[in-house]
Amino acid sequence: MKKSRVTVQEFINAKHAFEIIFVRGATEGINLVAQSYGRSHFKAGDEIIISTMEHHSNIVPWQMLAEQCGAILKIIPIFDTGEIDLEAYQQLFSSRTKIVAVTHASNVLGTINPIKKMAHIAHAHQVPILVDGAQAFPHMAVDVQELDCDFYVFSAHKAYGPTGLGVLYGKAQLLEKMPPYQSGGDMIESVSFTKTTFNKLPFKFEAGTPHIGGVIAFNESLHYLRTIGMQNITAHEKELLIYTTQKLREFSDINIMGTAPEKLGVISFVFNDIHPHDIGTVLDHEGIAVRAGHHCAMPLMERFHVPATVRVSFGLYNNQSDVDIFIAGLHQVKRLFS
Fold first, then answer.
1. Does residue 184 have a pLDDT over 90?
2. Among 34, 76, 281, 292, which residue has the least CB neighbours within 10 Å?
């Protein structure tokens, strides 16, 4: 566990290994911050800023917190390109703003948000910022000190590791002041019937038997990524993104959602009036794996006035031949539904 914690610390350039908290996934990391930092700092009328492009996992925990303490959600709008409206973002802050929670990269649009700039704006108002890095972490180099984010969460399975494991990074000065999220074994220092004292970081946030096998496996996943090089992975997936985008634009009846200049290897699109689920079914029969639906981002679907999209995404194992097979599959879709 200790060796793996140091590996994660080095991978994201955290200042201390004890700032790395092992959780069950990015979702639990967000819930931990909402229920620990949020419940100990928020009161009625306080404000939480999130964006239109958030995954449900970075919406619902804040909604629940808002209902518990009477806080208010304020939503950052986005442009038609899928980019954050930074001017509108700045205008959302007030003396009641208590936290910003925003995705590093959209799981639907692929948009890479300007986190360093957003963190600078938040800190000018003495407001911490949580970054949902589930989509970004496996596809680009992440330096939490360079970003100057206060919390950063991600899941191991997105980075070719095991399911049921994730990481919450938090700045030490914030984690020290936060009460435990769960209670039980290992998160205590001493217990009596009159008083319990809690363990030091990171253990006060890791109640119960840890996911030992998962943590060890994740350590190997990170070594694998480091051997390839995150810069190489980013460059490879960027090439596939450009190539696939060009191929999709040859279809006059395909509309791509999200055209930000800074994107990861994710493309969501609608194809004429063919339902995304039908497209996904046809492609599945052709041996092509895409995702069709709202992608756990229903407010974003509403923003673009669509019920669902087809999403194609790339990993380090994909190549242009895979893209050509995908494009051939779309021609098959068109033949079947024309």
1. no
2. 281
Q: Of 60, 75, 230, 296, which is the active-site residue? A: 296
Q: Determine the pLDDT at residue 322.
A: 97
Tens-digit pLDDT profile for residues 310-331: 999 999 999 999 999 999 999 9
65, β-bridge pairs: none
What percentage of the chain reaches a pLDDT higher than 70?
100
- d(CA 151, CA 168) in angstroms, rounded, equals 7
Q: Is 296 a catalytic residue?
A: yes
How would you class 29 by CB atoms within 10 Å of its CB: exposed for 0-12, middle for 13-18, buried for 19 or more?
buried
Q: Does residue 1 surpass a pLDDT of 90?
A: no
Q: pLDDT digit string (tens) for 11-45?
A: 999 999 999 999 999 999 999 999 999 989 999 99
Angle between helices 320-337 and 276-285 (to 10 degrees): 120
| CA atoms of 196 and 334, how far apart (whole Å) | 65
Section 57-73 average pLDDT = 97
Which pair of structure tokens corresponds to residue 24? 């069950």
Q: Is the pLDDT of residue 338 over 90?
A: no
CA distances to 55, 57, 138, 263 from 61, in Å:
11, 7, 23, 26
Q: Which of 112, 160, 119, 163 is nearest to 133 (CA)?
A: 112
